[in-house]
């Protein structure tokens, strides 16, 4: 890619600064999201008048499927990871087809090493420069796809792209009473991972029931170097690299307050459990107080924000991950790392990992979290990652029963 003209670079920096400000300010984020939803509503109204319902099809009635576009232009890491099994399922069903993927520049690294022929990336800067979206739509229409696959039934952006790129056939989850896709997945799913299974059911091939991520040998080697650097501060044995990962972050009301994390750090020290605290790029306000608390630590280290694949390779070596409902939670699921999910909201129950070695804690006290950590580490020998005991996928543990409700995946 050619460098931008020098007169454009300040504008790019200003745009990214504004977007960063919006992402890290709760009220600005709510305002921006309201404006975005309003614009999408107007677009949807127009689409209802322009687009005619397609003829119903089955996967076996499709003819001449040579070019497929999988559509998931979402900026959340977790949502991108949840979609990864779709790629492998379509590759198995259409082994000789060209399969492209519409993603975002933020989530693209998580999709590397998957069997995709070409990626199209949507940038956050398109929010401030909508003509970029128009240009992207034109490029996609020019490809003349045979099949467009809308991965998430709750994604308005993905729905708009699916309807406007002019593919011969389309596929997605049923949306309301009107038919929008040539092939429609019926039924609702109570968990995000099940929604992917439901979407791909008509392909007639097996589909993984959890996220997928493939790391390289070089990434794993770099991760071990980083882990030794972090753990050597509290160990006389360089080969001793066991640690508990604690991710401090999350999205809006799924986050836990700073005081909670500081108390958890104190409890880990009291129980002599070695741990590494990870911060996301949007949690920079928590860096100073956590760093201050860890100055006198005998068992804990702080890992600054890392590039996402580097972070994934480090996380893969953790004994387990303690986390709110967050992107790293799904990253751990993709890496078969046991999780302790700290749940604050009912809707999170539709997203938390649910293998036999995963634990869900509903608004727990600190001592409950520590007890769960100790129980998980002690029990890992009998239930190793990667060996689920059933296909029902019920949560392993609720400390306080959550409200009785039916949660429908709709991201």
TrEMBL record:
One of its GO terms (molecular function) is ADP-heptose-lipopolysaccharide heptosyltransferase activity. PANTHER family: ADP-HEPTOSE--LPS HEPTOSYLTRANSFERASE 2, TETRAACYLDISACCHARIDE 4'-KINASE-RELATED. GO terms for biological process: lipopolysaccharide core region biosynthetic process. The lineage of its organism: Bacteria, Pseudomonadati, Pseudomonadota, Gammaproteobacteria, Oceanospirillales. This is Glycosyl transferase, family 9. Signal peptide: none annotated. Keywords: Glycosyltransferase, Transferase. It holds the Pfam family Glyco_transf_9.
């Amino acid at each position: 890619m050619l460098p931008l003209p020098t007169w454009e670079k300040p504008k790019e920096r200003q745009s990214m600064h504004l977007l960063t400000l919006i992402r890290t300010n709760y009220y600005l984020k709510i305002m921006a999201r309201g404006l975005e939803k309003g614009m999408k509503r107007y677009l949807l109204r127009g689409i209802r008048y322009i687009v005619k319902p397609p003829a119903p099809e089955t996967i076996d009635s499709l003819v001449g499927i040579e070019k497929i576009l999988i559509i998931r232009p979402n900026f959340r890491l977790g949502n991108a990871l949840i979609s990864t099994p779709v790629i492998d399922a379509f590759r198995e069903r259409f082994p000789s087809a060209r399969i492209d993927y519409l993603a975002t520049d933020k989530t693209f690294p998580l999709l590397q090493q998957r069997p995709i022929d070409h990626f199209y990336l949507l940038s956050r800067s398109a929010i401030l420069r909508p003509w970029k979206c128009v240009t992207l739509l034109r490029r996609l229409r020019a490809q003349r796809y045979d099949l467009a696959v809308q991965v998430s039934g709750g994604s308005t952006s993905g729905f708009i792209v699916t309807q406007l790129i002019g593919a011969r056939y389309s596929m997605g989850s049923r949306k309301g009473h009107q038919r929008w896709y040539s092939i429609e997945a019926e039924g609702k799913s109570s968990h995000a991972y099940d929604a992917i299974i439901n979407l791909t059911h008509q392909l007639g091939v097996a589909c993984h029931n959890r996220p997928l991520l493939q790391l390289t040998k070089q990434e794993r080697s770099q991760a071990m170097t980083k882990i030794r650097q972090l753990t050597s501060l509290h160990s006389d044995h360089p080969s001793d690299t066991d640690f508990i990962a604690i991710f401090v972050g999350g999205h809006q009301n799924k986050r836990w307050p700073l005081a909670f994390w500081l108390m958890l750090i104190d409890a880990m020290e009291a129980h002599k459990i070695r741990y590494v605290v990870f911060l996301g790029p949007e949690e920079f306000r928590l860096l100073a107080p956590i760093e201050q608390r860890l100055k006198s630590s005998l068992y804990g280290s702080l890992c600054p924000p890392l590039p996402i694949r580097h972070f994934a390779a480090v996380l893969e070596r953790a004994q387990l991950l303690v986390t709110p409902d967050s992107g790293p939670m799904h990253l751990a699921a993709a890496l078969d790392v046991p999780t302790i999910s700290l749940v604050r909201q009912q809707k999170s129950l539709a997203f938390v990992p649910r293998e036999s070695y995963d634990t869900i804690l509903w608004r727990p006290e600190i001592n409950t979290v520590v007890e769960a950590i100790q129980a998980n580490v002690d029990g890992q020998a009998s239930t190793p990652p990667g060996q689920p005991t059933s296909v029902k996928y019920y949560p392993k543990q609720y400390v306080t029963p959550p409200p009785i409700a039916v949660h429908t995946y709709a991201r």
